[in-house]
Write a structure and sequence with these properties.
InterPro entries: Auxin_biosynth/cation_transpt (IPR050982), FAD/NAD-bd_sf (IPR036188)
Shape: globular
CATH architecture of the largest domain: 3-Layer(bba) Sandwich
Protein name: FAD-dependent oxidoreductase domain-containing protein 2
Number of strands: 22
GO biological process, one term: ERAD pathway
Radius of gyration: 32 Å
Function: Probable flavoprotein which may function in endoplasmic reticulum associated degradation (ERAD). May bind non-native proteins in the endoplasmic reticulum and target them to the ubiquitination machinery for subsequent degradation.
Helix content: 25-40%
Family: Belongs to the FOXRED2 family.
């Protein structure tokens, strides 16, 4: 009993030392700071833990050669700040116009040091609550039915201080180098430590393991001073302009492709790195062989006793010895700090470097644990931009909105409009919205129909992977059907083996919009909210289940979807067919005529003319409408009566009187018909 009492008092003393916060954020990189911004704006209790003395410590070292591949477009020809974010891949979202990245660098591909300065200012100017020099070394769970998620998260730092939080946001990125172990791998230099001084490679022969941007970045740096560079990787090179995935090889780094294809000694090879072996000779040269040649052999006996591939195949591609071998295989998520109780498991296949998470960015194993930023890229790996600043700044905002609804009862932000504004609302968003544009096929605008489709509710940038859970995740109801607006590339246009420059690659006619290849808006219509089963069984490569109706707005060379005939008219007719109503706008005269000749007025007349609202006409406007075929000439003549043709002011005055004294135009029209 004494031991039990002592243990209980010890536990109580220990729990008393916990520093509690509602939200704990691990990592003060771009993702952690973006999450902190939204939490602070909402007035939430949070803390950000950063192991370094300043935010963005990853960018203080990487990329090693200091040039970012995220574009920083200074000019777009437009002043719309939301549109300009489509071409600003470095800024985080905030209300402070000082914190736009273009104020920190004018380079199209900025230096990484500018990112370090930017993140420092972002944290300091916004007064974000970041606790520096705090390395979280262990995370576990404490069960408690009173907690938000049925448990608390217990975090321990390097000084054995403990922290307790209800919700954990992991924004540590992927920073552990990928390492392949094979015989002789001890002779390999890592990207994280290799020299960046080209003079250190003068006159040398270099082999690079890897095929991503870090590998080509390293090759680009030494391309002009080496004898030759060979690059080996398991997969073929993937060009970002062909895959439309910004994480694949970018043009700024692909100089080695020129020297390879133009036969200037450099070259690319494909092979499984785990099948390789490296043998060092007495002169320090590194020879590439295959693992099976070394089986049951004593490698310490010397290279002369080891069979090399060129001994059997005298034109073996890598028969020339190398001076240096450099590993550039990217990074993976650090799972080591998470207790087994959290069930933080790596993904499968190509996603094994990321933790397993749901489309809502919540851990599959632990409720209340959300993964942010680069580490959350498994949701859209090789599909969209969720692993990069210009993508995850929007997914983090979406996560914040999900948390606001779940824990604080704040519904997803929405705006209610009359149905007459449906076409305009869609056109405005597809031409301006940066979240839809950057996170194509992942984030979508949702239009919820209400009150027999006389009004609609507009929700912006919702994760479509959890569309079936929309009512629970947003606090909004969808009883009357919905539209989903997303951006997509053509189904068969992206891929490492695709020729994206072929003749007639673009579509220009509205009737062929469904064949559009380049990024373009797509509108899905559902009479009811799709179920989880329908989401799970959706067609391959489809972001959503099969809809009741679908409409593609034809791709546009200028990404400007405002053409009246090519873009707006087909969209309006699609919406009208889905809703069974007329979404056109009418002048007061037409609404008045419809009131006498139709059983049901168009929404424009119901919500405008009948309520004494709408556009006041003039004689010039009426004549223009008549010439355009919008009004019949006899209707114009009847309604104008004997007014002088040039009486502009008189026409307005008469129309005003018509609106104020509604019996007069009715009697006038009846008299005209009697005559």
């Amino acid at each position: 009993l004494g031991l039990a009492l002592y243990a209980g008092s010890l536990c109580a003393a220990t729990s008393a030392t916990f520093l509690y916060h509602d939200y704990c954020v691990i990592g003060a990189g771009p993702a952690g700071l973006q999450a902190a911004y939204f939490l602070q704006r909402a007035g939430r209790d949070y803390i950000v833990f950063e192991r370094s003395h300043a935010p963005g410590s990853f960018f203080a070292l990487y990329p090693r050669h200091r040039k970012l591949i995220s574009i920083n477009k200074q000019y777009t020809g437009k002043s719309n700040s939301e549109f300009n974010l489509r071409h600003d891949w470095n800024s985080l979202l905030s209300h402070d116009q000082r914190l736009l990245f273009r104020r920190y660098s004018h380079d199209f591909f900025p230096n990484a040091d500018a990112m370090v300065r930017y993140l420092e200012d972002f944290a300091s100017l916004l007064k974000l609550r970041v606790q520096y020099n705090t390395a979280i070394i262990h995370v576990t769970l404490e069960r408690d039915e009173q907690a938000w998620n049925g448990h608390y998260f217990i975090l321990t730092d390097q000084d054995r201080r403990n922290y307790k939080c209800s919700s954990l946001l992991v924004a540590t990125g992927t920073w552990v180098p990928n390492v392949v172990n094979f015989p002789g791998s001890e002779y390999v230099e890592g990207y994280e430590t290799v020299s960046i001084n080209p003079e250190d490679f003068a006159g040398q022969t270099v082999l690079i393991l890897g095929r991503g941007n870090s590998a080509f970045e390293t090759a680009e740096n030494i391309l002009g001073v080496t004898n030759f560079i060979h690059m080996v990787s398991r997969s073929r090179v993937r060009l970002s302009w062909a895959t439309h995935y910004v994480g694949d090889l970018r043009a700024i780094n692909n100089g080695l492709l020129d020297t390879y294809q133009l036969k200037s000694l450099d070259g690319l090879l494909e092979g499984d790195l785990e099948d390789l072996a490296i043998v060092k000779d007495k002169k320090g040269k590194l020879h590439i062989t295959l693992r099976f040649y070394l089986e049951n052999r004593n490698t310490s006996a010397g290279i002369d006793s080891i069979t090399l591939p060129q001994d059997e195949l005298d034109n073996f591609a890598t028969r020339a010895p190398y001076d240096r071998v450099i590993r550039c295989l990217g990074w993976k998520f650090d799972f080591s700090i998470y207790n087994r109780s959290l069930k933080m498991m790596p993904g499968k296949g190509t996603k094994k470097k990321y933790p397993q998470i749901k489309p809502s960015y919540e851990s599959r194993g632990t409720r209340g644990l959300f993964v942010l930023g680069t580490a959350s890229h498994s949701v859209d790996f090789r599909k969209s931009a969720g692993g990069f600043i210009h993508g995850f700044r929007y997914t983090i905002r979406a996560i914040h909105r999900l948390l606001e609804n779940r824990h604080h009862g704040v519904p997803w932000p929405s705006t209610v409009y009359p149905i007459t504004q449906l076409t305009n609302s869609i056109i405005k968003r597809v031409n301006e919205a940066s979240g839809l544009y950057q996170m194509f096929s992942v984030l979508a605008d949702i239009i919820l129909l209400r009150e027999n489709a006389t009004v609609f509710e507009y929700l912006e940038e919702y994760p479509i992977g959890v569309l079936a859970e929309l009512e629970m995740q947003t606090g909004r109801k969808a009883p009357n059907g919905l539209f989903v607006i997303i951006m997509e590339y053509g189904r068969n246009f992206s891929g490492a083996d695709k020729d994206v420059f072929y003749y007639n690659r673009a579509v220009g006619e509205a009737q062929h919009a469904w064949q559009s290849n380049f990024l373009h808006p797509v509108i899905y219509y559902y009479k009811r909210l799709p179920t989880e089963r329908e989401m799970r069984l959706r067609p391959p490569d489809w972001p959503l289940p099969r809809p009741d109706a679908i409409h593609h707005i034809v791709e546009d060379f200028l990404t400007d979807w405002t053409a009246p005939n090519a873009h707006i008219l087909p969209l309006r007719r699609f919406l009208e067919n889905c809703l069974g109503t007329d979404l056109r706008n009418f002048f007061a005269e037409s609404c008045f005529l419809f009131a006498l000749t139709r059983q049901k007025l168009p929404p424009c007349c119901q919500q405008g003319y009948v309520r004494m609202q709408g556009l006041l006409g003039s004689e010039r406007l009426r004549r223009h409408a008549a010439e355009a075929g919008l009004l019949q000439d006899d209707t114009v003549t009847d309604l104008l009566g004997d007014r002088p043709p040039d009486s502009h002011t008189g026409a307005q005055d008469q129309l005003l009187r018509d609106h104020v004294i509604t019996v007069h135009p009715l009697q006038h029209l009846v008299n005209a018909k009697d005559e």
